[in-house]
What does this fold into?
Amino acid sequence: MSERPTSPATSGMPMVSDAQIDEAAALLDSGELVAFPTETVYGLGGDAESPAAVARIYAAKGRPASHPVIVHLAPHGDPQYWVAHMPADAQKLIDAFWPGPLTLILERAARIPDAVSGGQTSVGLRCPSHPVAQRLLEAFSARRGGHGGVAAPSANRFGHVSPTTAQHVRDEFGGAIHVLDGGACEVGIESTILDLSRGFPALLRPGRVTPHEIADVLGVAPRLPDGSDATAPRASGTLKAHYAPRTPLALLPFDSLEPMLAVAAANGMRVALVARASSAGAWADASNVHFVAAPEDPHVYARELYGFLRALDRADVSRIFVERLPDTPEWVAVNDRLGRAAAAFEAQA
Ligand code: TXA
Ligand code: MG
It folds into this structure.
């Protein structure tokens, strides 16, 4: 793999100085946007209590204003400030998983501006574990008497692949957005989203924190997203076609990819293949194939996924063929993102 993002722990995280943190917190304080690293993906942040700042986020992303954004809180922040009431289940999950890659959807306090929740009566809250995110959130929160929260969707244009490095953010927005560089994101896919606003736990987006881990804490399994949950809150990350690269992507078992590879080879078409080396066999070395060996470990796959999709978009291939992964719990989050990337092209396949 040409672009192999490594975890901050092993790559030597770039230094972000206190002065850079202060500068970024001051920008947020004045209603400007700042892109910052989290353990999942980079976020495009703005003051969650400023409708003007939230409007800037929507404008920069090209995202419909009816889509709610997640409010990021400092480790010493006050989740109670943002919600109408804190259910016991929410507190248990906060104690178990924060700081970390779990977003909770809760009934929002009346004072929270409509814009941040896309007009819904709920608010999404999360406390990230990345040290740069935490320093920024503490510095901003301190400027707001300990109550500041940063609204931040993933720092990509609407519908596109989330960024997992500072360079990915620059690739999305050019020099228009101030970026704090905290190295490559360790988790690599967006947080798990759990809705607790309707009296029962419901998973809206799978992520590193699994339904099984949530069930261990709550003593009850969350409802899973199966399309039949008609009253589920709207979430853009839950649209069928999302997280898409620009190059058409097909997600199929290797058996089904093989005839497509053969047609591509016969026509001299350059394609990308993301598959386990054991499945790919000789196709890995075919002259028209740009081969990416799929990581065997689900966490590693998640960490590298968006980086290789972005790299393949620049690799001058006309199709991205991805081997389908096992239908087992440890692959659910990666399958979800790959499935959405493929769905974006199913109509034209
Ligand atoms: O890991 C993450 O969650 C990253 C980092 C930056 O924290 N953020 C992220 O944000 O993925 P975004 O906006 O790209 O995806 C957040 C998802 C969206 O699908 C949004 O609709 C949903 O969360 N969401 C946010 N607030 C919500 C609410 N009140 N009700 C239902 N869904 C909500
Ligand atoms: Mg997103």
In short: DSSP finds eleven helices and 13 strands in the chain.
